[in-house]
Design brief:
about 425 residues, alpha/beta, Rossmann fold, Sulfate adenylyltransferase, 2 domains, five-stranded parallel β-sheet, disordered C terminus, EC 2.7.7.4, Sulphate_adenylyltransferase, nucleotidyltransferase
Length: about 425
Amino acid sequence: MPLAALRPSRTLMRQAMWGISATAVVEAEQKLQTPHGNKLVNLMLPEGEREVAKAACTKSMELSDRNACDVELLCVGGFSPLEGFMSEAQYSEVVHSMRLPDGLLFGLPVVLDTDSEDISVGDKVLLTYQGADLAVVDIDSKWTPNKPVEALHCYGTTSLEHPAVQMIAMDRGKFYLGGRVQGLALPKRVFPCATPAQVRETLPAGVDVLAFQCRNPIHRAHYELFTRALEAENVRPGAICLVHPTCGPTQDDDIPGIVRYQTYEVLKEEVANPRLRWAYLPYSMHMAGPREAIQHIIIRKNYGCTHFIIGRDMAGCKSSISGEDFYGPYHAQDTAKAHAAELGVQAVPSLNITYTEERGYVTADVAQEEGLHVKSLSGTKFRKMLRSGEDIPEWFAFKSVVNVLRSAKPASSE
């Protein structure tokens, strides 16, 4: 349905309540978004200095998939203004107050973990990943973290039913290490991950840039959400949307990153929408709800975004035993809204979209007011249809995306 056909509704009227209302928006300067902390960090060493840095290392350690993502985002400035893994003092401040020691907002700790008793403060450690030398870190801090305290403050629970609590308790090592990082190379990935500087080169100056975060294939409803967000009240005309999925480790039952990447690539070609930009983020999800929302906003700010599209229960998760949600449906949205002015990134709430027989996709309140016949398809039913080869309705999923998922059925239909 054309955007112009979407008549005003209570849902649209509520958007003025989010972030900074349209009437309060200050005219942006004709430049790109300022990075977090006012500086876009680049930790990559010049090529001529890399062998010298490697030769000075006294220890080495192999990175996990998650740590490799963190090293990459540190080196390219995705975690600006950080210039390395957090020290104990930085870690403690972020855990307890969601801020760095200088008061700058930061969502979650960025730490290097190890079980090694041998690595000590003062060591220069070579970080390797899948046979490649990625970075050098000068260790200036080593400590044994209080993981239950970290879990409670960052994830709101100490229960192992939460995937991130389980991750820090069972996957991360006994010690955390902090120190300045010097980049040697970026991980070789089967999907390209443009750096913040590279993404910024594709963005027009003085134009609102909305970020759309996802970690799963994009279906019709998602596409409706982020294209309609371009017309939100607190978004200026001519805005563009950066579709920026995370392709690093997520939850165990999520579709593998390479398959997700393939679905995004075929969809990009199919829609060929000039108001969209596409890039991929090497980030490992924590499913931390409101804290993760802040982390995502900061990262996308560094990539040049001025707005962040945020849906119900963003980065939320459920108990693996009871099935109960760990966060309320608007917890992440409310946190983003509360910090919008400080971050300089406005929250754009995603519309509650539903498909109707009479008018296609409309907002849920319009469907209710007009008594329209709503059609729905659960994720469980979709996966069953995918496995069995049944026709999947085009109102639910793009054919190109379905074809990719079917070609990778053993990996994507668990």
